[in-house]
Amino acid sequence: MNQPVRTSGTAITSLVFGILSWVLVPFIGALVAVICGHVARGEIRRMPPGTIDGDGMAIAGLILGYAQLALCVLGVLFLIGILFLGFGLAGWH
Q1: pTM
Q2: Residue 55's CB: how many other CB atoms inside 10 A?
Q3: Which terminal residue of the chain has fewer beta carbons within 10 Å of its beta carbon, N or C?
């Protein structure tokens, strides 16, 4: 008798936090999405084929999480650049 295919809970978590990282909790949500996405993909690969589903959700969570992390890093670099430019124009040494 075939066992039903179950969906990985960590893949679902990765996707949910990937979406939440764009709506509510940018940096923390992105970190959770990336970590859970990698854990889910490892879990899916370790199990026999057809046992656990959710690789697509894990990949989507990873993409959303990494994109949000990249935007956070760019935003921080932009703010640092603005601060240095502001201090430079003000004549601070």
Answers
A1: 0.86
A2: 16
A3: N
Nearest of 23, 35, 22 to residue 67 by alpha carbon: 22
Q: What is the pLDDT of residue 30?
A: 97
Cα 7 from chain centroid? 19
The ranges of the chain with pLDDT < 70 are: 1, 89-93
Sequence spans of domains, the chain:
6-89
Give a three-class secondary structure readout of 41-93. Answer: HHHHHHCCCCCEECHHHHHHHHHHHHHHHHHHHHHHHHHHHHHHHHHHHCCCC
What amino acid occupies position 71? L
